[in-house]
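Document type: protein sequence-to-structure record

Subject area: structural biology

Format: plain text, a pair of labelled lines:
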Amino acid sequence: MSTQLSMYLGDWLQRRAQLSPERTALYDAQSGMRPISYGAWNEAATRTAALLRRLGVGRGERVAVLAHNSVAFLDLWFACGKLGAVLQPLNWRLTKGELAGLLADATPRLFVYGPEFVTTVRELQGEASSVQRWLALDGMALADIDDDILTARDACDEPVPPIELGWDDPWVICYTGGTTGLPKGAILTHGNITFNAINTVMSWGLDANDTTVLNTPLFHTGGLNVFTAPLVLAGGASIVCKGFDADQIFDLIDAGQVTILFGVPTMFIALQQHPRWDAVDFSRLKLVISGGAPCPLPIFEAFWRRGVDFKTGYGLTEAGPNTFWLPPADVRRKPGAVGRPLMFIDVKVADETGVERTADEVGELWIRGPHVCKGYWGRPEETARAITAEGWLRTGDLATCDAEGYYTIVGRLKDVIISGGENIYPAEVESALSAHPAVGEVALIGAPDEKWGEVAWAVVVPRHGQPLDPDALLGFVTERLARYKLPRRILVQCEPLPKTAAGKIDKQALKRQYLSAP
């Protein structure tokens, strides 16, 4: 994207407040569902921006944040936009050593932390030479580690001059949800976030009357960009929750405010296994969409039985994340498909050289468009490997495109199990296993085999402690899958499957758990 065009791109809230100052932008679920108008939110974010500016934060400066979801976190994000500063949201599930590595990666000037992370911050202080101030995020206040109180209200009378930014100016460094090595920081520019919002509003049909539940972590692109930024563009509202809680979601849906809902498959499994599942009223929801990982067909079917056009989306940190749309008329006709690309997005299923595959042939999904990230922070070689000179992002995800132009994600390139020369795509096998009524969670991993090179093992968690016989489960899927796709071992465990920070099943952890044993 060209950087020649400069505007006050970062002042989203100022522009929205001019258009609809009285409309509710946020509901603070941690403060009794306190409504916050766009006018009030803009004032709060402007005060936070004034404070950051007083502390020396300017265009291009990084501001790290380690905190659970809160209204103050959102203030900080949009305050950075007003200043041209770059937000570095940190995954609070990481260890001190991993966090220190991310601080060394982006060298932030300021570190803002939630009250739950004081101990972690004290451990990090000696390992982040770039950080000049450590500030606690507590409601409307930012206080440093030595209790020298600095509140956003103190700076309310200081003007924040508008700053002209180009589409390529960074706004967020959002780290990938990888399970090996230090995560890579995808540079999400003002153009990326804007076009993801435009694509979403135009293609998904969001409007000012929509309200969502924001409980996906804000250190993840799903929390920032699936609905939050698009709803600001549309003038809708987000209910800000600290995290996922099934009872809270049922309460909010029953109250009738929620119209659109996003989650990862593990969240929807938890909802469907909850005692309130059969009683909740879904009739006011116009859109329920899953993302982050392949979604087993039984999850779809449970929603369909309740009259909800549940569908799966697709995205990744480096692109959007919103990329496809499946019209309601095709939800049941094309189960598991993610649909067709959004308004300003090119996609193709390609071989390793970029040549497009034929219909229904498996290949790597390549994506191009103004929502694709600028690259990885400080990693030009990895950027060049991931994004071609023509702007195509090589996603590492495997997909098919049928004769009608509908795309389906079948797995990760590195997760494919090659057994005796045949490709086994875990998502297909996991979906078949999940159809058994006693299966709560399942993951397929590849295990070394002297004869076949690699075979599939399934790790299964029973539903609500129900008895689950591995031989009976194998018999259940024998009629549904080709013989070479059948798992050679079914491992039953009582505890939930390990998850990554993005809520995906952590298959690397499962491989360490089961394949390191003799």
User: Anything to note?
Assistant: The chain has three domains: 34-165, 192-413, 416-515. DSSP finds 15 helices and 28 strands in the chain. The chain has a mean pLDDT of 90.
